[in-house]
Amino acid sequence: MSGPEPNTQVHRELKSLRDRVPQLTGTLVASTDGLLIAHDLPAHIEPAGMAALTAAQLSLSHRLAATAHGGGFHEVVVHGESGDVVIYAVGWTASLTVLAAPGANIGRVHLESRPAARAIADHLAAVTGEAETASATPPGTQTSNPK
């Protein structure tokens, strides 16, 4: 293999994201079927359980977006009393979950997390040989035709 292992690259993306946004308290990448891929979570959060919860929310969000507007899903924000949880679609087969402290600037979280999600999608696609479609729009997402 010519570079670092994909999970190492994904973990680097997670660490880099947390370095750029100090208000983040944790990050996680999970497959759409709830399997843990990589995480940088606080000790009190069980990673495999969080991966399963993330997959369930991702599935519901995909369904809600498709039912409500006939389009695809990109992200969901859950505002809680003790902070926020933001889940981003990562390509077609995974999600990036970020945990933000109370009062975090969600615009900044989005600004930094969206490119990280695309980079993670590229890393994961390299493993499966789907690099050309990694950054493609997830299934069901409407794209505009420039013609």
Question: Could you characterize what this model shows?
Answer:
The chain is α+β, with helices and mostly antiparallel strands and 147 residues long. 41% of the residues lie in helices and 23% in strands. The protein has helices at 6-20, 47-69, 106-128; strands at 24-31, 36-40, 75-80, 83-90, 94-100. Helix 1 runs antiparallel to helix 3 (106-128). Residues 131-147 have low confidence and may be disordered.
Strand order of the main beta sheet, please?
A: 2-1-5-4-3
Residue share in β-strands: 15-25%
Record field, number of beta strands? 5
Our count of helices gives 3
Shape: globular
How would you name the oligomeric state of the polypeptide chains in this document? single chain
Largest sheet: 5 strands, antiparallel
Along the chain, the helix and strand elements come as HEEHEEEH
Alpha-carbon Rg, integer: 15 Å
Average pLDDT: 85
Provide the low-confidence segments as ranges: 131-147
What percentage of residues falls in helices of 4 or more residues? Answer: 40-55%
Give the CA-CA distance, first to last residue: 41 Å
Structural class by SSE content: alpha+beta
